[in-house]
Amino acid sequence: MIDRQKIIEIFKASPTPTSIVSADDPEFSFVQMNDAYLEMTGGN
């Protein structure tokens, strides 16, 4: 069984900039971004 909390911890701790995007055609909404992504893009 997949441990959802463990997946979230790995996502947040990953050194690889990563984002999860919802395809709300014709626009796209960011659902989640990890710290590495925010650092790369200058987000907060």
UniProtKB/TrEMBL annotation:
Source organism, top-level taxon: Bacteria
Species: Gracilimonas halophila
Protein name per UniProt: PAS domain-containing protein
